[in-house]
Every structure is written in structure tokens, then in C-alpha cells.
Amino acid sequence: MFYSHGFIVEGKNPTPINPRWGMYDFPKIKNALADDDYNLIAYHRPKGTNPRVFAKKLTENANTLISKGVKPENITFIGFSRGGAITVLTSNYLASEKVNFVILAGCSTFVNNNPELDVFGNVFSVFETSDGVGSCQFLIDRSKRVTTFEEISISTGKEHGAFYTPIGEWVIPVKNWVKSKGS
User: Fold this and answer.
1) Per-residue buried b or exposed e for 157-178, using 16+ beta carbons within 10 Å of the residue's own CB
2) Per UniProt, what is one GO molecular function of this protein (predicted)?
3) Which domain holds residue 132?
4) Number of domain units in the chain
5) What's the CA gap between 12 and 143, in Å, rounded?
6) In whole angstroms, what is the distance from residue 96 CA to residue 93 CA?
7) Ramachandran angles phi, psi of 54, nearest 5°
8) pLDDT tens for residues 77-110?
9) CA 156 – CA 169 distance, rounded (Å)
């Protein structure tokens, strides 16, 4: 399982502070997502990372795993915000109907304004009802090779900051979904 963090974490600080949403606790999120049932890979992207270039790196990672015998259905990409956009890009580049993708508040203006981007495979979306970044339904509607799609909303009142810490409202459903897919 690959986790891609939000934009605010790009750079050297794994716990940056947003004046509105507080601290993004990348180490605690990694700890909460880790599990004995799968291997978690969570790169800390450098400042100024190009999302398309990084998504191509993740695509290469997946293709390497598949070439070494890992079943595509045992690979999951999870991304929040900019990491969610990177996850969408990775899905688009990989174009596998068997790989799993989790988008956390990631169906943003970038995704909407790039209609050539499709997602593939098994897709799970989580968004916060008080956040400006909402449902991924528009992305699913234009993507013709989605194997399965599930989406839930959470309502914490924390806007985008709901995904800044590993709260049960999103961590538990994400881990349950990932385990149900075999990763």
C-alpha cells in the first residue's frame, strides 16, 4: 500500500502547521495506516514535487512489484488532497482494472479541470462534508474502466483538516476497505 500525503507536507517538515486546520501529522498517519496485513510505503515528497512526475514514479513502483509476482489486486494507492490528485494520476498512468485506489478529499479542481484523467480499477473515496473538496462522482462518471466504486462522506466539521490527523472516521473505513480488497 502506497500513501501519498497532502501538499503541506512537501518539504522537510513531517508535521507542518496550517493556520486554519492545525498540524498535519504525517508520522501519526503513517503509524495509523500501517498494518501487519500489508506493507505500507509512504514517501515524504520534497518541496516543489511535480505531481505528474511523482505519479509516474509510483506507476513504475507498481509495475516493478507486478513484474516480481505481486498480484495487481494486492496493490493499493491512497492519497489525500494533492496526494489524492497524485493517486488519480497514478491510476490514469497505470490503467489497471485490478489495482485499488483510495482518494481522500482528492477530487479537486485540478482533477476536474483535466478531463483526460480517468481512474481505473477499484476506487474508494472519502470526503468531508464541510470541505470544499467533495465527491468524486464526476470522475467516476467520466471513467469507463472502474471495476468497483464506493464513496463515503464524513462530517467532523474540520473541513480539509479532517485528514490532517488519523481519526477513526476515515482511517477505519479505509483500512477495512483495503483489507477487503486483499492488499
Assistant:
1) ebbbbbbbbbeebbbebbbebb
2) hydrolase activity
3) 2-180
4) 1
5) 35
6) 9
7) -65, -40
8) 999 999 999 999 999 999 999 999 999 999 999 9
9) 8
Grid look-up 513531517 returns 14
CA–CA gap between residue 146 and residue 175 (Å, rounded): 20
Q: How far apart are the C-alpha atoms of 128 and 21, rounded to whole Å?
A: 13
The Cα 112–Cα 72 span in angstroms is 27
38 to 80, 181, 182: CA distances (angstroms) = 19, 11, 9
The CATH number covering residue 153 comes to 3.40.50.1820
Under the banding of pLDDT at 50, 70 and 90, the label for residue 183 is low
**CA distances for 2 relative to 76, 88, 161, 183, angstroms:** 6, 13, 21, 11
Residue 91 neighbours by CB under 8 Å, 6+ apart: 77, 99, 101, 118, 119, 120, 121, 123
pTM above 0.70, yes or no: yes
Nine cell digits for residue 99: 489495482
Task: Copy the grid coordinates of residue 3.
Answer: 500513501
